[in-house]
Amino acid sequence: MSARTVCSLRKGEKGVIKSFTDRDMSLKLLEMGCLPGSEVRLDAIAPFGDPICINVGGCYSLSLRLNEAAVIELE
Fold first, then answer.
1. Domain definitions of the chain by residue range
2. pTM of the prediction?
């Protein structure tokens, strides 16, 4: 069974960050505050589906491309 990722969330759905699948991208995401154990919620999806807007830890919103969101595995 494949791991669930942020790009698989539906609008309003939440998840908790577990890990990352890409080492280089994980550094960028960590610097943006996407830390393992943080709760994320999908807040908005652009009209053509890319990018998406997530809320991280209930503190701030972050816009990500789908290929970036696909790197974030959820618990």
1. 6-74
2. 0.88
